[in-house]
Each structure stands twice: as C-alpha cells, then as structure tokens.
What does this fold into?
Amino acid sequence: MSGVDALPTTEVPQEVSSLLLPLADGQLLVPVETLSEIIALQSPVTAFDAPDWYMGELHWRELRLPLMSFEVMRGNPMPTLRSNCRIAVLSTGQAEGDLPFFALVLQGTPRLVRVTPEELAGRDAECAMGELMHVALSGEAAVIPDLAEMEEACLAYRKRR
It folds into this structure.
C-alpha cells in the first residue's frame, strides 16, 4: 500500500499543523497535538534487560516515561548524543491508557510546518519497526511514526520485566 492510499479518503483537512522532529538519520512528521513538551536532554534511569531502543525511563510530571531511540528502533545504530539533543514527550492519544506518553531523543529542535494534501506525497519504502509511512513534504523526506506500535512495544517490554 502506498502512503497516499493509507490517507483517509473522506473529510481530508485542508491543512494540518505539524512538526518535523529531527533525528540523526532523518526526521519524523507528527501533528502538533501529538507533542506534549520538549525538554532538555537528561539521563534516564537504566532499564534492566531492555531492548536496545529502550534507553531507560524518565520522570516527567509524576509519571515514568520510556525514553526511546527511534533510530535504533528502526534498525540503525545509536546516534551520538550531542549538546543540541532534546527530548520530545509525545502523547499516545490514550490519556486513560497504561502509557499515555513516551519520550524520544531528538537531534535538535522541532520545526513547525503546515501540511496540505498538495504538499504531501507518499514514498515507496519498506516500513521498519515504529514506522507507519514514508512521505515527502514539499520534496523533503520524512517518516510518519506508528505511535500505536511504539506504545505496544513499550508496554510489551514493561509487562515482561
């Protein structure tokens, strides 16, 4: 299925305020509503026997959040953490669920973009773990993350500890 085929065919909004989240190996495209907060890079509490992409847990607003490396989740090496790195706290959309938020390491500051159907095109690419769709936004490559899959992966790890 191409990325364009995965988009709903009814009531497509004319414009969606979104963010490009910078990674070491590309960028993620998420709706603005998905981002809860950008925080400074901090060392997580180490997680025992965790997958490589599960960097540990952060304390944020009286919650324990999993901190993930999207690069490692999709099969790439762990990026170098530099002084410009930030942490994005993302909402899973399940406010009453077992994991309402999780965190991702970013390689810089997110950039606000306005997405219109004319500017967004699907790209043919195999999706790795955590990827929903590869897209081009005005010719700029990005990945739409599969937030549900990322949430499920974190919950699966937490259940087996």
Observations:
- The mean pLDDT is 89.
